[in-house]
Task: inverse folding
């Protein structure tokens, strides 16, 4: 069984479609009507999760019968906030941390003990590595995820549970619609990348498939940058 959280988003939908073609999946999200439609199309079950009112992780784990083996978990729940720090309210900061970092803690804390020989996958962002102005909240949340991935990978290595994250730069998705709302904005964004392109799900899906496959069986605790070089490369 593969658990896909945030399955109704752009990446989540692509991952749900890909994984469900040859595996059992269980969807997790916040919007019951979207989840219900998506799970009908795929032929699977779903669970609604309210991040501001969660049960204890061990209670949440009961969404799956005890005898079901959890081979994979992917958290596509995320949000972005680009705002000067002094204009960021406590509520906005907390929301970014809850949506990105707390969701990752909550899902792994719920299922890690049931994932022997499995693979868990989280999403960071280029802002987790590179200091980008006005990205303080998302940078804090995503670098938090990267540290969380390294430490949890150490904790659960004894179970052969591999835990990694992918750090994309800006991709064409629901989340980036506002940021890419004009041709000029798209050009500026493209040109920020050594490989001048906006990302899309097809840049990410092969890495997801690889991290869920046996081919990556010796890879754990890693942040894999899929970002056109933006985190670390400076061309002349
Ligand atoms: N798109 C980019 O440019 C980009 C760049 C770097 C990293 N990433 C990361 O990639 C991952 C996937 O993002 P995406 O591009 O697929 O974005 P997306 O289409 O906006 O998907 C985000 C998902 O998170 C869910 N979500 C948001 N707030 C939530 C909350 N409070 N409680 C529960 N669920 C919530 C959304 O649910 P609804 O469907 O109900 O709205 C949706 O399923 C995220 O972690 C994101 O930070 C994206």
Result:
């Amino acid at each position: 069984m593969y658990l896909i959280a945030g399955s109704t988003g752009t990446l989540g939908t692509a991952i749900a479609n890909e994984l469900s073609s040859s595996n059992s999946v269980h969807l997790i999200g916040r919007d019951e009507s979207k989840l219900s439609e998506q799970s009908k199309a795929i032929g699977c079950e779903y669970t609604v999760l309210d991040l501001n009112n969660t049960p204890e992780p061990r209670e949440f784990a009961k969404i799956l019968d005890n005898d079901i083996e959890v081979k994979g978990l992917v958290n596509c729940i995320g949000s972005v906030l680009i705002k000067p720090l002094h204009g960021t309210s406590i509520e906005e900061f907390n929301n970014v941390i809850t949506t990105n970092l707390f969701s990752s803690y909550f899902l792994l804390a719920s299922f890690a003990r049931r994932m022997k020989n499995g693979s868990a996958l989280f999403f960071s962002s280029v802002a987790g590595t590179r200091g980008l102005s006005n990205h303080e909240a998302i940078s804090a949340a995503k670098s938090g995820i990267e540290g969380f991935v390294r430490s949890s990978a150490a904790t659960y290595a004894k179970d052969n549970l591999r835990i990694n994250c992918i750090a994309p730069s800006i991709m064409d998705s629901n989340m980036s619609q506002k940021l890419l709302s004009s041709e000029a904005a798209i050009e500026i964004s493209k040109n920020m990348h050594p490989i001048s392109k906006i990302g899309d799900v097809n840049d990410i899906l092969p890495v997801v498939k690889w991290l869920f496959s046996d081919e990556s069986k010796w890879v754990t605790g890693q942040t894999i940058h899929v970002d056109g070089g933006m985190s670390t490369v400076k061309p002349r």
About this structure: The two ends are 47 Å apart (CA to CA). The helical segments are 10-20, 32-42, 57-60, 90-111, 136-156, 183-191, 201-211.
